[in-house]
Amino acid sequence: MNKMKLKSMLEEFYKEDLGDGDVSSDALFRKGDEGSFSLLMKENGVFCGKDVVEIGFSLFGSSVSVQLFVEDGEWVEAGQRIAEITGPMGDLLQAERVVLNLIQRMSGIATETYRAVEHVKGSGVRLCDTRKTTPGLRMLEKYAVRTGGGFNHRNGLYDAVMLKDNHISFAGSISEAVKQVKTQIGHMVKVEVEIETKEQLVEAIESGADVIMFDNCTPETIRDWIPLVPSHIVTEASGGITWESLPAYAETGVQYISLGYLTHSVKSLDISARVRIGKGV
Q1: What phi, psi does 101 have (nearest 5°)?
Q2: 194 — phi, psi (to 5°)?
Q3: Which of 86, 148, 196, 277 has the most neighbouring CB atoms within 10 Å?
Q4: Which residues carry out catalysis?
Q5: Band (109; pLDDT cuts 50, 70, 90)
Q6: What is the pTM of this model?
Q7: Which CATH number fits domain 122-264: 1.20.140.10, 3.20.20.70, 2.60.40.10, 3.40.50.1970?
Q8: Would you place residue 27 in the very low, low, confident or very high pLDDT band (cuts 50, 70, 90)?
Q9: Residue (of 119, 173, 172, 130) closest to 155 by Cα position
Q10: For the chain, which residues make up each domain, given as ranges?
């Protein structure tokens, strides 16, 4: 987690929420009014977002103190206390919603990833995410996948070559696409090719792809084709893979399975802030 980047992100989120000020808190509280609240997990799951809690509340000054009781990746039961936050009431209430929104989503992703990893435990396959993330939240969502026991695919368009059907159509063929990109990229950049037919698979192998993605192929098809792939080429399955079909894909022999639903369709975990009021709490 890049904490400098996280701090900048949180500052922008607070600017969006606060605007010119908190009308409710400014009208209710006097300077010096202090309080405390606990962050409570309302359902079972994997907690994720420790840095968000610590940095999010710290942006409101040294008068706000944070005590965390769990670590990222820890399984938390409903009713368990995650953290205790103390400070000026207005600051606590201004910081609360942004922090809760983020850690609820991150914990939901971490929990779903954990469930998926457990679902295929023993198969040896690695589960990873995709670029189907929420704009602006990719760093946090991909961190949540890692927290849940998954792995990250490329972070964006900038750190790996992935030749999809449209790239190949524009270039004319898989061979031509791979040839062109390899004249431009550095030796540290991997080239992945997406295939859907046996002919494309053979062409991708012969063109020198580093990674081959079986896209929208059935488990039976992948199982039949994978013996054709040399051991130095990494294999991946993706496209339309669900919770129900995941075990079948895990048994095909692919090394990675990328799951878009880990980030684009996940349900946030329910986490609440329970207030306790009092001077000097």
Answers
A1: -55, -45
A2: -90, 130
A3: 148
A4: 97, 132, 164, 194, 215
A5: very high
A6: 0.93
A7: 3.20.20.70
A8: confident
A9: 130
A10: 3-116+267-277, 122-264
